[in-house]
Amino acid sequence: MKVFIRTSFMLACVVVAAVFVKAQQPVAGVYKTKCALCHGATGEADTPAGKAFKVPAFSSDSVLKESDAALLDIAKNGKGKMPAWHDKLSDDQLKSLVTFIRSLQKKS
Known about the structure:
The protein is mainly α. Helix content is 69%, strand content 0%. It is built from 5 helices and no strands. The protein has helices at residues 2-39, 48-52, 61-64, 68-77, 91-107.
């Protein structure tokens, strides 16, 4: 009986971990395919497109001071030369992108 309980617990942990990892992957993939061309893999806008369009780094004061709501609005509706994504990404994806951007800011 103890073996069954331990095995069930371990299986539950593996399932929860797998669900968590799967939930984390989509936003990173969306960022990589939709955002990294200009914003760069680390959010520093150190790509040729980022430099050409004068994209601010996520670690810049101008971006750091923006609220999550403001970043979400920019992602949805675009700003300057940045395109709007409201018609290509769901609200949940856009909110996840803002969270992902905040995680990049913490790494820099």
